[in-house]
């Protein structure tokens, strides 16, 4: 039970911590100064949403996200959000692939090298189906999370930062809503694909509370670090590298590798959501659908990593607010609908 719960916890975190989050770009886009309360609210909202999505997925024993989406947003809006989830997963996976190119550029290698490497790796991963993604998440994410926390705490101690020095300034607390909403749709897509594999409600609680708490703590420390280098965040495509500019080269290389794996696991989660939905219509091998999907994504990566995040993420964050509201009040909606019946 605990092991299975941890497995789903790492899947949730792997879906959320991608190029945007791990690089610091997504956090800075939504949070920044006066956001401590916003991050705590995000952790709470995120946990509640995960519980709601997994409960529906578990009850439906779903193999893709459509039945889960129907229960969350209602029959009338299902088609709208079905299209929106597909577009969201498609474009955010493009962002992950572009993030791999940006990581390659950070070491003075061609942009297309990074893109080619991640595409080949994704195809190889899905030769093993869903189990390949679950296995790599359990192996990579503990290392990634440990490395990221280590770097951020090292920076905090080295710069003699006070994590709670700005606690009285909380005017940006509303940012919790679009930031949580941004991360909801991919979770519906991914967790909707594994409902038939969840065995108990205890797994749901372990995965949801564990992922919410982990992401909340890391987000708080990370955002506090970014505030100290606010002027340099504008210059760096990947803000994490601004934090690490005075670190030993070996540490920079190590974190770059971990950043790439964060990009990779989120891209893999996005691909899983897309192809599990396509397979409902096209009865072809998983790896073949993955190949065709990736081919259509390649041209869009030319737009660049930070540009895609800057314009697409805030739009998605606002559009998903209705889904967030439905999830936060899911038990009340259920009772209301039963009363009407």
What does this 3D model show about the protein?
The protein is mainly alpha-helical and 341 residues long. The protein has a single domain, classed as Hydantoin permease (Orthogonal Bundle). Helix content is 77%, strand content 0%. It has 18 helices and no strands. Keywords: Membrane, Transmembrane, Transmembrane helix. InterPro entries: YkvI-like. This is Membrane protein YkvI.
**What is the total domain count?**
1
The top level CATH class name: Mainly Alpha
CATH topology, which one? Hydantoin permease
Mean pLDDT: 82
- The chain-level structural class is mainly alpha
Low-confidence stretches: none
**DSSP strand count:** 0
Helix proportion = over 70%
Outline: globular
| Number of helical stretches of at least 4 residues | 18
Protein name: Membrane protein YkvI
Keywords: Membrane, Transmembrane, Transmembrane helix
Organism: Virgibacillus dokdonensis
InterPro entries: YkvI-like
């Amino acid at each position: 039970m605990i092991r299975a719960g941890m497995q789903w916890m790492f899947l949730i975190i792997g879906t959320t911590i991608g190029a945007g989050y791990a690089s610091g770009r997504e956090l800075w886009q939504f949070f920044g100064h006066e956001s401590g309360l916003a991050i705590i609210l995000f952790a709470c909202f995120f946990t509640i949403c995960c519980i709601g999505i997994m409960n529906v997925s578990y009850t439906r024993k779903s193999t893709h996200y459509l039945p889960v989406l129907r229960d969350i947003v209602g029959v009338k809006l299902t088609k709208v959000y079905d299209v929106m989830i597909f577009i969201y997963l498609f474009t955010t996976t493009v962002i992950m692939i572009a993030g791999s190119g940006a990581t390659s550029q950070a070491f003075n290698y061609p942009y297309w090298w990074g893109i080619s490497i991640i595409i080949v790796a994704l195809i190889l991963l899905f030769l093993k189906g869903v189990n390949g993604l679950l296995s790599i998440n359990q192996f990579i994410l503990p290392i990634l999370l440990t490395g990221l926390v280590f770097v951020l705490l090292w920076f905090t101690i080295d710069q003699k930062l006070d994590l709670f020095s700005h606690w009285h300034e909380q005017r940006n607390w509303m940012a919790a809503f679009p930031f949580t909403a941004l991360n909801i749709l991919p979770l519906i897509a991914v967790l909707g694909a594994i409902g038939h594999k969840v065995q108990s409600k205890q797994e749901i609680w372990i995965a949801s509370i564990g992922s919410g708490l982990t992401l909340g703590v890391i987000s708080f420390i990370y955002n506090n670090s970014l505030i100290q280098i606010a002027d340099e965040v504008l210059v760096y495509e990947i803000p994490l590298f601004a934090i690490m500019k005075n670190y030993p080269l070996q540490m920079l290389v190590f974190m770059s590798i971990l950043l790439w794996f964060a990009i990779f696991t989120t891209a893999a989660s996005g691909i899983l959501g897309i192809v599990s939905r396509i397979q409902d219509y096209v009865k072809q091998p998983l790896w073949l659908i993955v190949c065709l999907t990736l081919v259509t994504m390649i041209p869009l990566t030319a737009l660049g990593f930070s540009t895609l995040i800057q314009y697409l993420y805030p739009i998605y964050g606002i559009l998903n607010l209705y889904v967030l509201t439905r999830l936060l009040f899911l038990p009340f909606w259920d009772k209301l609908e039963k009363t009407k019946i």
